[in-house]
Amino acid sequence: MLQEVLLMSERQIVTFSIGNANYGIDVQQVREVVTYRKCTRIPKMPSFIEGLMNLRGQVVLVVNLKGFLDIPENERREEGSGKIIIIDAPDLHIGFLVGEVYSVTRISNNDVEAPPTSSQRIITGIFKKGEDLIMIMDALKAIEALRENIGGTPVLTPQTEEVHVLKAVEGRKDM
CA 16 to CA 18: how far, in whole Å? Predict the structure, then answer.
């Protein structure tokens, strides 16, 4: 019983970088991490939508978190640079492009502080690791924000994902 209580007060996060900042996503929201590879751009999508990637026969929508979070992009991305965190979202194949993935870190929920009010939508807490701050991101809330940011564009709706991606690739406006 005591061990169960201790386990509930701890969790593991995948730590990574975006620009000069460190972030973490709960390991339960991460399916896998893969090296960046070239994506196929989707016409008429915001610039932070990197495009589509074929991952072992599965089409994955890749979102550049640096662009989505409005962190200035100052370098051109080469294949093999950066990592894509594949999110374990229900009926949706999506990956977040980040700089580096560092490790899986066990943290105590008691050591997580509340984020500033303005960032509570996606950032659920801040963890201090030595001199570094790690902003803990809720991947599923980030996906909700992406859907709203794209203006409800159905490219992120799981049931119609394939149809709308095909329309976008064909340049059709009846999406």
Answer: 7
Sheet containing 101-108: order of strands: 101-108, 10-18, 21-26, 132-137, 123-129, 112-113
Kindly report, residue by residue over 65-107, the tens digit of the pLDDT: 998 888 876 655 555 679 999 998 887 899 999 999 999 999 9
Q: Are strands 30-35 and 123-129 parallel, antiparallel or unpaired?
A: unpaired
Question: Which amino acid type is present at position 5?
Answer: V
Cα–Cα distance for residue pair 132/61, rounded to 1 Å: 30
The pair of three-digit structure tokens given for residue 2, joined into one six-digit string = 């005591």
Per DSSP bridges, beta strands 58-64 and 92-98 are parallel
Whether the CB-CB separation of 105 and 12 falls below 8 Å is answered with yes
Partners of 101 in the β-ladder: 16
Task: Give start and end residues of each alpha helix (H) in 42-160.
Answer: 65-68, 139-149
Instruction: For residue range 128-159, list pLDDT tens digits in order.
Output: 988 999 999 999 999 988 888 776 554 444 44
Please, are residues 137 and 25 in contact by the beta-carbon 8 Å criterion?
yes
**Where exactly are the structural domains of the chain?**
2-170
Q: What is the architecture, at CATH level 2, of domain 2-170?
A: Beta Barrel (2.40)
